[in-house]
Amino acid sequence: MNRHWTNDELLDRLYGLAEKDSHIESCADCARRWNELRARRAMLAAPGQVSSEVLAAQRRKIYARLGQEPGSRKVWAPALAAAACVLAVGLFIYKPAPVPHPEAADAQLFSEAYSMEQSAEPRAAAPIHALFEDNP
Ligand SMILES: [Zn+2]
Q: Going residue by residue through the chain (136 aa), what tens digit of pLDDT does each one get?
């Protein structure tokens, strides 16, 4: 490999994921970056080496991020408003269907069927009879 190592390749090598490569022995720049990375890793891995100031600063950054509230409500607000509008329109338009009364409908049907059966003439002949009645 003739080109310089990228940071990802250095990290891969640091964690033992990279293949063996002789570039680092021949390149002063990559060797310097490699040594800096190893020194930083050794500093962070050593117990008790992280100062309380670094931890306090990290904690302040985390609290600052938490205080920002990443705007999840702002993302959902338009969708929530649209859903509320649809619900309001639906409630405004909604009219419940009239509930049929099966007992009354059945009784009416039976009475009509009974009267049709009992009458000698069909009901369609009633208007014709009206023509022949004497009206004063
Ligand atoms: Zn290099």
A: 578 999 999 999 998 888 878 888 899 999 999 999 999 888 787 766 677 888 889 999 999 988 876 556 677 888 899 999 999 999 999 888 877 777 778 888 888 888 888 877 777 787 888 888 876 5
How remote is the CA of residue 42 from the centroid of ligand 1, in Å? 22
**Model pTM?**
0.35
Cα of 46 vs centre of ligand 1, distance in Å, is 28
- What is the three-state SS of the chain? CCCCCCHHHHHHHHCCCCCCCCHHHHCHHHHHHHHHHHHHHHHHHCCCCCCHHHHHHHHHHHHHHHHHCCCHHHHHHHHHHHHHHHHHHHHHHCCCCCCCCHHHHHHHHHHHHHHHHHCCCCHHHHHHHHHHCCCC
> What distance in angstroms lies between residue 21's CA and the mean position of ligand 1's atoms?
11
Write down the domain spans for the chain.
1-69
